[in-house]
Amino acid sequence: MASSLARSRKARLGTEYLCEWLYRPLAHVVVLALAPLRVPPPAVVLASSAAGLAGAAELVRGHFVLAALLVQLKTVLDNADGQLARLTGNVSAFGRYLDSECDLLVNAALFAAAGWSAGRWLLPALGFAALTAVLSVNFNLERLARGAPASWDTSVLGRVYGLLYGWQDVLIERLVERRLRGLGEDARDAYHDGATVGILANLGMSTQLAAFGLCIAVGRPLAFALVALAEVAVVAALFVRRESFVNVDREVVLEHR
Question: Is 15 exposed, middle or buried (0-12, 13-18, 19+ CB in 10 A)?
Fold first, then answer.
């Protein structure tokens, strides 16, 4: 079991500890049950999304504990789809696009439900925008640290991905490349420091939904919007920190590495 869990892990820089210690092991139990049945990973994506949307519906109805549990089920299944794909060799662009787009849909539904239950709309809208931005920065800075380009294809879901996420990927990539223009590899390595990537990894989707679920369970779902806004400040501080690695003469300050 341990060996198959290791094979199903996604290779990435930085570790999202709550995901690794809690959600991935739970998801692996689901994977071991589904793999012999040859369940396609996109079906698990849809099941994950259904759990998340059901959680939003229960939140509107005021069933906070049930809503929180459904959000955690969504998180377990959200991890299971990727782990199942990697373990069975069924990783696909279709699954990647479907997963990303369904995640955005569920996040929007959860914030809309939180706003509906509280009769407030501005704070959940700001919270949704903040969460989307934090997750985008997390994804893209890790991608850029690996040297992977922004990419999507011309399939239907690929075009939808480009519309929803592609501009974010390109924008962050261009901002980083503009900052590092003319600098050598040492500067790039220092700028893409492991500490920043590691901190951002722990603002990943699993951790976010765990926090959202906790806020829902105690009957304060809009509190998570404030958490998401606070995370934007954390990301801004990380960017300021990264700038300290390159001085005004565009020389790498090696002692900060």
Answer: middle
Using alpha carbons only, what angle is made at residue 51 by residues 50 and 56, rounded to the nearest 5 degrees? 95
Find all residues with CB under 8 Å of 192, minimum gap 6, and list them.
Answer: 141, 144, 145
Sign of the Cα pseudo-torsion (17, 22, 27, 33, in order): positive
Per-residue pLDDT of the chain (257 residues; tens, 9 = 90+): 557 666 666 767 789 999 999 999 999 999 999 999 999 999 999 999 999 999 999 999 999 999 999 999 999 999 999 999 999 999 999 999 999 999 999 999 999 999 999 999 999 999 999 999 999 999 999 998 888 888 999 999 999 999 999 999 999 999 888 877 777 777 677 778 888 899 999 999 999 999 999 999 999 999 999 999 999 999 999 888 877 766 544 554 444 44
Please tell me the pTM assigned to this model: 0.89
Q: Tell me the two tokens of residue 226.
A: 């404030």
Q: How far apart are CA 169 and CA 75, in angstroms?
A: 24
Q: How many residues comprise the chain? A: 257
Contact 216, 227 (CB under 8 A): no
The answer to whether 70 and 216 have CB atoms below 8 angstroms apart is no
Q: Using alpha carbons, select from 225, 210, 27 the residue that is nearest to residue 134.
A: 225
